[in-house]
Amino acid sequence: MKLTKKLLSMVATLAILVPNVYAQQEMQIVNVVEAVAVTEISNDTLAFDYNKLPLSERYPTLSDYIVPVNQSVEFDGIKVTVEELLVVEKSVYLSAIVEKSNGLAFDDLEYFHFDNFSIDMVLSPEEEEKARVRNIVETLVNNSWESLFDIITEEELDLLIHNLDFTSYSRGGSYGQTKLDNGTFRYNAEFDFEKNLDGEQIQVTFRDLLNYSYDEKEVSLDFQALAKQCEGVSDNIWDNLEDNFEELNQYSLNYKVDENFDYTIELVRYYVNDDGETVINILSSSENPNSWANLNVKNVNSAYAGTASHVYPNFVTQEIRLDNIDELETEISIRTMNIIAKGNGEIQLAIQSTGVPTLTYDKGVVVEGENGFTLGIDTIKVTPMGIILEGGNGNPEMIFNNLLTIEVLDKDGSSKMMQSISSSAGYDTEQQLNEFIVNFRPKEYYKYVDVLNIENISAIKINGMTITF
Fold first, then answer.
1. Which of 4, 11, 230, 381 could staple 388 via S-S, CB 3.0–4.6 A?
2. Do 463 and 370 share a structural domain?
3. Would residue 5 count as lying in a domain?
4. Dihedral pair phi/psi, residue 93, rounded to 5°
5. Is 444 left (phi over 0), alpha (psi -120 to 50) or beta?
6. Beta strand pairing call for 457-462 and 465-468
7. Residue 141, helix vs strand vs coil
8. Rounded distance, CA 393 to CA 391, Å?
9. Which has more confidence, 255 or 328?
10. How far is the C-alpha of 287 from the C-alpha of 311, rounded, in Å?
């Protein structure tokens, strides 16, 4: 494979100083094998049964507030039906069924996920510029290894700095899927927003249904022989690969490690560093942008030496240090993304106020945590689904390092401990915290069809401070 000039570095970081940039989002995903930035939740029997249920059966005490939807969209042989919807303050909950358009079962699949499964507010014409801002942010994130002005123009950066506002978009979400007895799948999802959704219109988007396959195999590689064939590649070229692709192509080994694995070794460097350690570098390539391979290198005593990870189209490893280059064990593993259904579908829904009961405390409190950290909370809302804290000042360590402890006290003398499941924060131009939202749920909430009984709550405690409503 001919090397291209789009070389991915090991770590790519893009930092842009803008007002009110929301960060540190956390996502929890239940019963989903492939996910990014997830908190693992055990796939026990209770969790499995819990995700089989539509909203009205998961939360029977809230059935009066759950809205039947039953709207469907189809693409590339699959049908997605949004069954029910529940809106609680700034959060949307929904259940959906995924099935084949022809009515047949997904016999050969045990899990999958959508490349994009999202809920966003439908923008008015006046908010089109906000949509453009979001697109700029996505472009930056997806091309973070490149220089800033190779990605966007100065005019776009100015627009970004002065208009960054994500209140019309969800702050992220969580979802669970379970295969039902009839061979279809049920999705249960929650998406959190920055604003109350009463009277708004939302759009539910589904795009590209995927799953992943995995394979691994032991392979035998003679790194010394491969490196000898690359002796014409000087250290200066290795240290400046992006500027020397034409010359590198003259020496490319084009060595496919295994015919069943999309991992091709282009160049190998073998040397002894200043500390006397044996070191190898590998430049690899692939033809399939939907596969990711690792060449795991171990010493014969099973001590881990390093992994030559592979990202499309080509990739340079960090230094892999070896005890003895003649006594190695190598194994290749590959993860491939398989497209089950390609395309997208959108369903738009109008949100009407359902009057879900809540408790609100808006007098403001300052709570203390470890190391003298404090957090100024402006508003506390208790809903059947959990507790929402909103504020504008304090130490972000309180939010993101689990320094908040919340206990719900009931009138019958019982209590429930809560856990943080999602959080977001905004910072000013001097990187000072100026707004935040933290969502709490009952601990181990994913195991139970359980909500808070608002009428039975007498108070809550935040880091030992009692708040009454």
1. 381
2. yes
3. no
4. -115, 140
5. left
6. antiparallel
7. helix
8. 6
9. 255
10. 10
Q: Which two tokens stand for residue 448?
A: 């139970």
Contact 435, 392 (CB under 8 A): yes
Q: Which of 187-191, 235-239, 300-304 has the highest mean pLDDT?
A: 187-191
Final residue in a domain of this structure, among 312, 327, 350: 350
Are residues 392 and 275 located together in one domain of the fold? Answer: no
56-83 burial, b for 16+ CB within 10 Å, e for fewer? bebbeebeebbbebeebbebeebbbbbb
Selection from 128, 139, 125, 136 nearest residue 158 by Cα: 136
- The dihedral through the CA atoms of 278, 283, 286, 291 has a sign that is positive
Q: Are residues 88 and 186 in the same domain?
A: yes
Total of domains in the chain:
3
Could you tell me the two tokens for 245? 């692709």
**The domain containing residue 264 runs over which residues?**
215-336
Q: How many CB atoms lie within 10 A of CB 272?
A: 10
| DSSP states of 341-367 | EEEEEEEEEE--------EEE-S-EEE
Walk across the sheet containing 113-121 and list its strands. Answer: 113-121, 201-219, 328-350, 291-299, 304-310
> In the prediction, which pLDDT does 126 show?
64
Instruction: Answer for the pair 53, 97: CB distance below 8 angstroms, yes or no.
Output: no
Burial-class residue 398 by CB neighbours within 10 Å (0-12, 13-18, 19+): buried
Q: Are 45 and 171 in contact (CB under 8 A)?
A: no
Q: Which amino acid is at 3?
A: L
| pLDDT tens digits for range 101-138 | 999 999 888 888 899 898 888 877 666 666 677 677 76
Question: What is the CA angle 132-136-137, rounded to 5?
Answer: 120
Which of 324, 350, 376 finishes a domain? 350
- Please count the other Cβ atoms lying within 10 Å of the Cβ belonging to residue 171: 21
Are 136 and 144 in contact, with CB atoms under 8 Å apart? Answer: no
List phi, psi (to 5°) of 380.
-120, 125
**SS3 call for 43:** coil
How far is it between the farthest Cα atoms of the chain? 80
385 within a domain of the structure (yes/no): yes
CA-to-CA separations, 145 to 11, 132, 160, 291, 316, in angstroms, rounded: 8, 21, 19, 20, 14
Residue 84 CB: number of other CB atoms within 10 A? 21
131-154 pLDDT tens trace? 677 677 767 766 666 667 777 777
Rounded distance, CA 120 to CA 169, Å? 5
| Residue 251's CATH number | 2.60.40
- As a whole number of angstroms, the distance between CA 440 and CA 405 comes to 10
